[in-house]
Amino acid sequence: MHVNNKKSINKFMAELKNPRRIERKVSEASISTKALDNVIYGIISAIFFLCPIFFTGLVSQGVGFEKMALFYFLVLLGAVIWVTKGVFKGELDIKRTPLDLPLLGVLGLFVVSTILSISQKDSMLGAYGSPAKGLIALLIFTLFYYLVANNIDTKRVKLYFFSFVSSMFLLVVYSFLQLKGLYILPYAFGKNISFNPIGSLSGLTMALAIVLPLFTAGAAQVNQIFPEMNKKVSMAIKSVLMFALLATLVVLAMLSVFTFWLVVIISSVVVLIFFMAKIIPINTSNLFIPLGVFFASIIFFVIGNFSLIDTQLPTEISLSRGASWDIAKESLKESPIFGSGPSTFYYSFSKYKSIDFNSSPLWNVRFDSASGSIFELISTVGVLGSLALVVLALIVLSLSFLTLIKTKNRELNPIMLGLFAAFVSVLVLSLMFAQNNSLILLNVILSVLTISTALTIYPEKFKSINLSFRAAPKYALALAAISLTVFAGVVVLFTIGLKTYMADMHAKKALLATNIEDKISSLNKAVSLAPYQDKYFLSLSNSYIAQANKAVVDNGDSKNISTKLKLSIYAGKKAIEISENSASNKEALALIYENASFYDRGALGKAEDLYDEIILLEPTNPTPYMRIALVNM
Question: Which residues are bridge partners to 190 per DSSP?
Answer without folding.
Answer: none
